[in-house]
Write a structure and sequence with these properties.
Elements lengths: L2 H13 L9 H8 L3 E7 L5 E11 L2 E4 L9 E6 L2 E11 L4 E5 L9 E2 L10 E6 L7 E12 L5 E6 L11 E3 L4 E9 L9 E5 L1 H4 L1 H14 L17 H4 L9 H10 L6 E6 L4 E5 L12 H12 L4 E6 L2 E2 L9
Parallel strand pairs: 7-12
Antiparallel strand pairs: 1-2, 1-4, 2-3, 3-6, 4-5, 5-6, 8-9, 8-11, 9-10, 10-13, 11-12, 12-13, 14-15, 14-16, 16-17
Length: 327
């Protein structure tokens, strides 16, 4: 989109500010795309490590998924020919929300929407960098609202296409408000149009939860790490253990992050063929669903016949250990 066309689109978007005036996909893109950036991370040798997306939420501040930053020693926010070094400013690893600080970044911030008002069936637009393809937009509907056992919203399910590299990108409503951060795409191997975002409300709550996390860290005697490139390593232990498995894939990791949002009791089972199964909730009277979650997940894994099945995690605890390791 040319500069003149973008300016005209922004003027139209500004004129259409009422709740009954839904913006077209073109106007939503014109209004918010400048706030969506590519995240590139690098290891200690300055070699590329991973990539994802981020959304500008304030002066020199952008939010992304914490898992995008795992193991990073350096982080860069990039867009077209621009690149700015960034440091970790705030984190909430349990919710997978991290904020980066890049003082040299001058980009208009998005408007945060109210996640509590998101409704199934409403139109949404995802903007991110799937497979490194900058500023890719997809459209869809809110397919469902996934809640935990306390009835708290933990995932917005959407039919808007999301692929690897879009983690930390924006999910916007038809008023160009950020309602979620895209995080998990196609969590089941044969699913179509099954994608997820974490609620934007968690971005609003990040400062308070970060302060609580730092207070806990201080009580435990941990060193402050607010300027580091990656959140505290111990908070990633449950996911990073998967890196010790030669058959772990990024889709398995995505499935595991989804597992961590499921109600207790729960279990996550993996196979040496790269498959995964999960089960959650209390035992059912249905014979097919009877038994503890670990038993149910193991049965499903063994049916797939993709290699030896292993119980990886039960509830919030990783029970798998490398051969020869002590518990």
């Amino acid at each position: 989109m040319s500069t003149v066309a973008r300016w005209c689109a922004l003027m139209l978007a500004a004129a259409c500010a009422g709740p009954a005036c839904a913006l077209s996909a073109e106007l939503v893109y014109a209004k918010v795309s400048a706030a969506v950036w590519r995240v590139r991370t690098y290891d200690g040798d300055n070699l590329p490590l991973a990539q994802g997306s981020a959304v500008v939420v304030g002066p020199g501040a952008a939010v992304t998924n914490c898992h995008v930053l795992a193991k990073a020693k350096r982080v860069s926010l990039q867009r077209e020919k621009e690149a700015f070094d960034a440091t970790l400013d705030m984190w909430d690893v349990k919710r997978d929300v991290c904020q980066l600080k890049a003082p040299a970044l001058h980009a208009a911030a998005v408007t945060l929407g109210d996640s509590s008002k998101v409704a199934v069936g409403q139109s949404v637009f995802a903007i991110g960098n799937p497979k490194g393809l900058e500023l890719t937009m997809s459209a869809g509907l809110v397919s469902s609202l996934r809640r935990n056992d306390q009835n708290q919203l933990v995932l917005i399910q959407t039919s808007a296409a999301i692929s690897g590299g879009s983690s930390g990108g924006g999910l916007f409503d038809d008023q160009a408000r950020l309602i979620g951060l895209t995080t998990i795409g196609s969590v089941t191997g044969d699913a179509q149009n099954l994608n997820f975002a974490i609620p934007a409300q968690w971005v609003s709550e990040l400062p308070q939860r970060h302060a609580q996390a730092k207070a806990v860290q201080a009580l435990a005697g941990g060193a402050p790490s607010g300027a580091a490139a990656t959140p505290p390593a111990q908070d990633y232990a449950r996911i990073d253990e998967l890196d010790k498995l030669p058959f772990a894939t990024e889709r398995m990791r995505e499935r595991y992050r989804y597992f961590l949002t499921r109600p207790l009791p729960r279990a996550f089972v993996i196979s040496e063929g790269g498959d995964w199964r999960l089960a959650s909730g209390a035992e059912s009277s249905n014979p097919q669903l009877s038994g503890a979650p670990a038993e149910r997940a193991l049965r499903e894994c063994e049916k797939a016949r993709t290699g030896r099945c292993i119980v990886y995690a039960v509830d919030d605890r990783v029970v798998w250990r490398p051969e020869g390791a002590t518990r």
